[in-house]
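Entry:
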Amino acid sequence: MQDILKEIADKIRNAGYTELTPIQRIAGPKILMGEDTLIVAPTGHGKTEAAVLPIFSLIYLRRPQRISGLYVTPLRALNRDLYSRLSKLGEVFQVKVAVRHGDSSAGERKRLISDPPDFLITTPETLGYLLVRKEVRQHLTNLRWVIVDELQEMLDEKRGYELSVVLERLRRISKNRIQVVGISATVGDLNLAKLFLNPRGQMQVAKVDTVKEMELKVLFPRLKEKTSRTLNPLTIPQLSWPGSRL
């Protein structure tokens, strides 16, 4: 067991994480133990990695059938940036990452069926569409982990109601117990958030309230003095445009 933990720690360091943030240290063990977990921390504390690092570690160790992990985010505009970040992390853990949303090319859509990834990034709307397609639904029967990002954007919203139905459908078609991880910068009602992700409300909460300290500098460009000839308006030639009386 110690050898396995050392191997995972080495991979995390190879991915560029020399030290875990407080929320990553709190959430990691809960997720590794298989607990449904709600992660709450201010922006900039590494919440995404707090959810993804332990799941990538489990995929690396168990090598489950694809597609085993989903990352659902309502912010489609950030999907490509998220894909770039998680793909680099996936290379370290030998986890294949893909993204699928409404703007995906025909080639990307075909590859999702012919060569599915270990970990798929998508939006709530696209996920609902994918469940309708028999070929993709077959791969989703292998699902083990679902991460729901920007949870505060889903609560008490129509998109959130639709996603809750989709999560229940995923639970019913999967051959495995699905572990759900929620991510949010702020949640007003923790009980509501827990019930949204787990109908029984049986979720662990990993939360930090600290404010990340930042040092801001305001830089002003230094203008060089330069002599310039001031033009007399009376000496500027008048321009004449067709149809004008200038």
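The radius of gyration is 25 Å.
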